[in-house]
Amino acid sequence: MRRYWLTRGLRTIAVLFAVSLLAFSIIHLVPGDPAVTLTGMQATQQELDAVRRSLGLDRPLYVQFARWIRRALVGDFGTSVFSGRPTFEEIFPRLVASLQLTVAGTVVGASAGLALGVISGARPYSWIDKGSTLIAVLSISVPSFWLGVILIYVFAVILGWFPSSGRGGIENFVLPGLCVATWSFGLLVRLTRSSVLEVMGDDYIRTARAKGNSERRVLFSHALKNALLPVVTVLGVQFGLVLTSAVGIEVVFAWPGLGRLIADSILARDYPTVQAAVIAVAVVFVLTNLVVDLALGYFDPRIRYH
Amino acid sequence: MGFVRRFLRNRLAVLGAGIIAAFLAGAVFAPALTTFNPIRMDLGAKLTPPGSTHLLGTDELGRDLLARILYGARTSLFTGVLVVAIGLGVGGAIGVVGGWYEGTLDQAVGVVVDTMLSIPGILLALALVAALGPGAEKAAVSIGIATIPNFARLVRSTVLSVKRNAYVEAARAIGAREAAVIFAYVLPNGIAPIMVLASYQMATAMLTIATLSFIGLGAQPPLPEWGSMLARGRDFVRVAPYYPIVAGMPIILVVLGFNLVGDGFRDALDPRLSRLT
Questions:
Q1: Nearest-CA distance from A180 to chain B in Å?
Q2: Would you identify the CATH topology of the domain A88-299?
Q3: Does the beta carbon of A52 lie under 8 angstroms from any beta carbon of chain B?
Q4: Contact list, A243 vs chain B (CB under 8 Å)
Q5: Interchain contact B277–A (C-beta under 8 A)
Q6: A296 vs A287: CA distance, rounded Å
Q7: Rounded CA separation B8/B268 (Å)
Q8: A224, A155 Cβ separation under 8 angstroms
Q9: Whole-number Å distance between alpha carbons of B23 and B263
């Protein structure tokens, strides 16, 4: 058990290191002088010199990287070119807004998807299975930002039930939350269905049936325990994915989230903010997966000894 | 029953293939299918709802939406294919080498692939777009690079399992060259799961490209492209609701098409699941 936790922890550190390398490389991959890239086009010669000195841009790349990491570890990702404030202050409220939307949408979408997926998988090729399979493939094929535009038209413009943009009260969550939920819903239906379907063909399920258990008991006490393991793993991955994939939704609903901050910062060539935001998303993603993996390892001995 | 016949028996999968074929034909024969120029503005006809002249209406600059969808299919389908070509080409090569030779090189590459898989693909793509700058091809290259690890891992495990077969050993025993064994025996027998992943990745790629164009990081105006059409259409949802609705349809249909084809491949590949009927 301890070995599993240790290797898993080391992997997390390796991934975070790789992400830092990626974020660090961004400014060096941009054609042109990194000092100009970092300070913006209107910078004076003094500002440029100050940046070159403080980042050691004349030093070898690995020295620059080490210095960058050292600052990143204490939360110093530089100053936003756009607002002049430390990027960390820019990022944090955005991260909170993104997390709220992601959690709300994923909880609703995933629970509905899970329920329908179990029903579908337990009764394959019934009308309810065919219907939910079709709805599921549709909901992962519709771009969430398109759905957002349509929802705004119907519920904000025509009916006037919900606000079309901004982040204030609970009513602001409904439409963008629905967009996030639709996507996780479709994914969870498909995944749960195939997982349940596969497990239901296993020998131990036949044994459970042969022992005279009711079909309900076979499904809930025997099948689901195994069928839901891969579902939980994917749910963890999805959660982190939505954080960035929701960028289209954030743009449509003027939601002040992290995805939109990344997009805006790329367009404004505000590279310190892009770097910090990339790291922030990666940290949340990696930590979510770590928690999921450790939890699964705790509940399923086969995983920790693998 | 063979893979192809099982696929063709799946009505939804055939429908998906038909949708893709229709859009491919639309992209290729766009000049024959519409007389409108997708880029030339006609301000007198701006925001005309669907009718007899403009079958799907016009945009805010009077450009025919059907023409923009047909010509836009060239950009959108091409960038989608580019993504999968990069992912499958590079990832496939890495996977074949790793799976066939195994050893230290394979393990080293495996660490890189696993690390890349631990970062959300869209985040990787966004970071690359940040460095490369906005543009349809640049966005496609960025997403393509982000898909490399997915293909590398699948191709590697496929090669690993196929090469244990007796016919591979037989081919090597009669002295066939290594490249010949890989291309004539290993890859054809492992192609099915790769086709499943390629279809799903194509669907995801089309969605991601549309998202990047939608937020202004993909195709730049006046190039007709589905995601950026939708981005423009969004601003006119109040005065011309048909515009964003029409502009979203091609993305939905093509992504649905690739997902259905992927499902069809998957079910045809695993007869165990379809036998349960």
A1: 14
A2: MetI-like fold (1.10.3720)
A3: no
A4: 120
A5: yes
A6: 14
A7: 9
A8: no
A9: 19
Provide the terminal-to-terminal Cα distance of chain B, rounded to the nearest Å: 15
Alpha-carbon gap, residue B212 to A198, rounded angstroms: 36
Tokens of A195: 């997982």
Written as six digits, the tokens of A38 are: 């970092």
Taking the domains of chain A in order of start, what are their residue ranges? 2-87, 88-299
Taking contacts as CB-CB distances below 8 angstroms, the residues of chain B near A197 are 273, 276
ipTM of the complex: 0.84
Tens-level pLDDT at each residue, chain A (306 residues)? 677 778 888 888 888 888 888 888 887 777 777 777 777 767 778 877 877 777 677 777 788 888 888 887 877 777 777 777 888 888 888 888 888 888 889 899 999 999 999 888 888 888 988 899 899 999 999 998 899 989 888 888 788 788 777 777 777 888 888 999 998 899 899 888 888 888 887 888 888 888 888 888 888 877 887 888 888 888 877 777 777 778 888 888 888 888 888 888 888 878 888 888 888 888 888 888 888 888 877 777 776 665
Q: Which residues in chain A are contacts of B256 at CB distance < 8 A?
A: 137-138, 141
Nearest residue on chain B to A26, alpha-carbon basis: B131
